[in-house]
Amino acid sequence: QQQVKQSPQSLIVQKGGISIINCAYENTAFDYFPWYQQFPGKGPALLIAIRPDVSEKKEGRFTISFNKSAKQFSLHIMDSQPGDSATYFCAASRQGGSEKLVFGKGMKLTVNP
Amino acid sequence: EPEVTQTPSHQVTQMGQEVILRCVPISNHLYFYWYRQILGQKVEFLVSFYNNEISEKSEIFDDQFSVERPDGSNFTLKIRSTKLEDSAMYFCASSGRLGRLAKNIQYFGAGTRLSVL
Prior knowledge:
The structure holds two protein chains of two kinds. Chain A has no helices and eleven strands. Chain A has strands spanning about 5, 10-15, 20-25, 35-40, 45-50, 55-60, 60-65, 70-75, 85-90, 100-105, 105-110. In chain A, strand 4 (about 35-40) and strand 5 (about 45-50) form a beta hairpin. The termini of chain B are far apart. Chain B is an all-beta fold. Chain B has strands at about 5, 10-15, 20-25, 30-35, 45-50, 55, 65-70, 75-80, 90-95, 105-110, 110-115. Chain B has one domain (about 5-95): Immunoglobulins (Immunoglobulin-like, Sandwich). The interface of A and B includes residues 41 and 100 of A.
């Protein structure tokens, strides 16, 4: 019930294309859903996050779509650039307590020039 | 921009040896975490620390592990007797600035790669 399932495991897109990463969760107590971006040799860095009181959040080329009834959320990267090539992790946490992050397995994105 | 700093970047040790991984969280942050990432796998929670005590720990965080905030700035993870399966990247994270409702936003360090031989 603590798991966050992420798909696909890897994705290759052309420059300018749209990258879509999907995540699903079981624990309905989760109320914070961040996406982290990780470059090789670096730690995960917060990209964008959403809370379940909204269905969509957009920041620049990055959009999170959230479907509370389906317990799913996704990250859309518009106009993908080679610099977006990285591993993307979805995560979830619950307010109160330690607020630990439960991560998905990650998705390696490659954007070809 | 403030950042979480971890040292060393790479630690090689023999099985059975003790290691201490060090972290300097972002100043004025209140919540501290250790996560680990075995090569090719997802990032896993180990332990959280608040107000000078452990607030939650995972099943991975057994008696071989301990955490400490010895001087108000450093946050350390000690593994008493390392095992081969402890080989992983260990990430420190911190969150929560005084006066801000930002508890969930965790900022990660670059990690320490631990290699147990």
